[in-house]
Amino acid sequence: MLQVTPTLAIPDDELVERFVRSGGPGGQNVNKVSTAVELRFDVANSPSLPEPVRARLLARRDRRLTDEGVLVLSAQRFRTQDRNREDARERLAELIAAATVAPKKRIATKPTKGSKERRLGAKRERSTVKRQRSSSGWDRE
After folding, report:
1. For a tag on the chain, would you pick the N or C end, based on fewer CB atoms within 10 A?
2. Residues 6 or more apart from 75 whose CB is under 8 A from it?
3. Is the Cα dihedral 58, 59, 64, 69 positive or negative?
4. The domain containing residue 95 runs over which residues?
5. CATH code at 53?
6. Which parts pass through the membrane (predicted)?
7. Is 73 domain-assigned?
8. Considering all CA atoms of the chain, what is the largest pairwise distance in Å, rounded to the nearest integer?
9. How far from each other are the two terminal CA atoms of the chain, in whole angstroms?
């Protein structure tokens, strides 16, 4: 069981783990041992996810999300399979926990009267400075 929040948990049978060889430095160990983890979670068809959370996860423009709605996380930071497995599960839990929080609705506001006056006053000042710079008032010889 992957505990995401106190009220939301994902059963292990919904998670598919595949162990593959890691890339990068490490010499012979990297070439022989499959320590990297590819964790797959079907967001679109998961019965344990509430509908609003599923919708928020699917609406994200995330390159880890396939067209079928499967979230694929790859973990290969650590040298051991167990630690990479834990890392992938923690990252999945953080991702789902972030989707449980509903975003705040934006309230449209208007500029205050004072801010409008300050903006227009600054524009007037700038305009007079530019007008005084023009060559029409200069005597040329």
Report:
1. C
2. 36, 37, 39, 84, 85, 87, 88, 91
3. positive
4. 2-100
5. 3.30.160.20
6. none
7. yes
8. 91
9. 90
